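Why do we care about 3D structure at all? Because function follows from shape, and shape follows, mostly, from sequence. That is the central idea of this module. The next example makes it concrete: a single protein chain, its amino acid sequence, and then its structure expressed as tokens.
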Amino acid sequence: MALARLEVITLSLLTAGARTGYDIHKWLERNGAFVGYTTQPSQIYRQLARFDELRWVTSTREVREGGPDAKLYRIAEAGLAALDEWIDSPYTPSPRPLDPDFQVRLMFSARRGPARLLDLVRTELAYRKEHEDYRRGVDADLVPENADAPLRAWLRTAHMIQSERGHYMVQTLIAWLEATEVRLAALVDQP
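And the structure:
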């Protein structure tokens, strides 16, 4: 099942306990940069209302002294099933190595155990190893037609600097994926 990033985040947060829309908004303010997502509170409340219609959540009103009542949402079996279906769905890595989709999968698939994360890490690792190539030539569209030899040489150097940055970032990611694969494999192999 294809769930949008905010749907995944919201359902995942509700697996940890009842929350208000405001609680979800505050979590995103603190952690949104790590999962590549921020939003307005109104979008969260619209989504929670839609989840209520789908019966993915249940809600209760909590009376609060000294402030407005709060609407607490809890994940329902149907919401849990939708989240688990997303977690178990095939993952296709993004061509962009640091795309937030992998981070979201990694963060919110943990509830399914180390074997699920191991599969995810192995998928990402295989893709990164297969597609890691930083030795592309200079993009001709970025070289002015009337560029002289020194400018062309400089543009090649600038392009190489950029390519090396990407290469080192991907190599670091691959090293982390390999170390994580070993760690998760050990957890999966425990009796």
